[in-house]
From TrEMBL:
Primary gene name: mvaD
Family assignment from sequence similarity: Belongs to the diphosphomevalonate decarboxylase family.
Domain (Mvd1 C-terminal): residue spans on this chain: 174-300
EC category: lyase
Organism: Labedella gwakjiensis
EC number of the protein: 4.1.1.33
Annotated protein name in UniProt: diphosphomevalonate decarboxylase
GO biological processes: isopentenyl diphosphate biosynthetic process, mevalonate pathway
């Protein structure tokens, strides 16, 4: 029996970060996180069961090694769920730069989860899809949902899932300063493991991020943009501080990253409220209100960084082609 489906998912940027697992196999994180799904960056993935082996083509190139193996191990989970033993062909396209710190693993595994299960004839609830996507990449649990999402760390497979977080009208937008769209030297997975294993600041990161998470839920519920932004910026800086304490140290920053962070402080001082966040890569994401997108993106553009992308909140995952 063969089945073929296509799904689209968007990447998401965490406002309270996930950085560290308590269970690597199940991808149970040490802390809960909050994110904004972006309309600007997405993955479209087609899965067809009934192949003679698992094959993955990303942006026209066949994958091998670790990235191909990650997909195959994920397909194993779908085989277990569906009771199938066939292999699958996976063809994917990212409009998000791959492995650049713009969350390609989030959109990538959310789209793969939806396409692979649909093609296998499974009909998962959004929560079940979030739990499955998490095991491909933790951040993918949140890309099942549009707009703001919260991923509860939980304590086991069933309790670690994301769900939508009500936005009381924050009117959020994000300006992405693309400092370098190239491939990072160390994956998020390996860098967070190294931080957890070797950084003396890791425990402090975990305890302070738990406090930030509670504060973020309150700030979002209150529609307090200033508090949301302040918490997002300081949480990101603390995550990067924890990485710097690793042996060997991990730093994703480039000179243009620092220039962008400085610009954000200057814009705030001049009266445009905006806040910076950074992930496992050199690119700087600037959280602002929708009416300020044009002025913030013009200011970032004036720095002469490699690129500027503006984004509004994006939608959750959806299946665009399913077996009839
Ligand atoms: P990012 O910041 O882009 O999320 P990560 O280090 O977390 O970087 O993950 C990058 C990895 O995610 C890639 O090397 C690849 O293994 C996987 N990935 C990215 N996009 C896809 C996709 N469309 N389909 C399958 N796997 C993907
Ligand atoms: C810095 O979800 O990419 O973007 O679960 O190992 O695949 P794995 O890691 P990943 O880590 C994301 C780290 C981050 C912060 C975040 O998105 O919360
Ligand atoms: Co990732």
């Amino acid at each position: 029996m063969s089945g073929r489906s296509t799904a689209v998912a968007h990447s998401n940027i965490a406002l309270i970060k996930y950085w560290g697992k308590v269970d690597s196999r199940l991808a149970i994180p040490a802390t809960s996180s909050v994110s904004l799904t972006l309309d600007a960056y997405r993955t479209e993935t087609t899965v067809e069961w009934g192949n003679d082996r698992d094959s993955v083509v990303l942006d026209g190139d066949p994958l091998s090694g670790v990235p191909a193996d990650r997909v195959s191990r994920f397909l194993d989970l779908v085989r277990d769920l569906s009771g199938r033993s066939e292999y699958a062909s996976v063809v994917s396209r990212n409009t998000v730069p791959t492995a650049a710190g713009l969350a390609s693993s989030a959109s990538g595994f959310a789209a793969l989860a939806a396409a692979a299960t649909s093609a296998a004839g499974l009909s998962l609830s959004p929560r079940e899809l979030s739990i499955l996507a998490r095991k491909g990449s933790g951040s993918a649990s949140r890309s099942i949902f549009g707009g703001l999402a919260v991923w509860y760390a939980g304590t086991d497979d069933a309790s670690s899932y994301a769900e939508p977080l009500h936005d009381p009208g924050l009117d959020l937008a994000m300006v992405v300063a693309v400092v370098n769209a190239g491939t990072k030297e160390i994956s998020s997975r390996d860098a967070m493991r190294l931080t957890a294993d070797t950084s003396p600041y890791y425990d402090a990161w975990v305890s302070s991020s738990r406090v930030d998470f509670a504060g973020m839920l309150e700030a979002v519920a209150a529609g307090d943009f200033t508090r949301v932004g302040e918490l997002a910026e300081s949480n990101a800086m603390r995550m990067h501080a924890s990485m710097l304490g690793s042996t060997p140290p991990v730093s994703y920053w480039e000179p243009d990253s620092v220039r962008c962070l400085r610009l954000v402080r200057e814009l705030r001082a001049a009266g445009t409220e905006c806040y910076a966040t950074m992930d496992a890569g050199p690119n700087v994401k600037v959280l602002c209100r929708r009416p300020d997108v044009a002025s913030v993106s013009a200011a970032v553009g004036s720095l002469g960084v490699a690129g500027v992308t503006t984004s509004l909140p994006g939608p959750g995952v959806r299946v665009t082609e399913a077996p009839r």
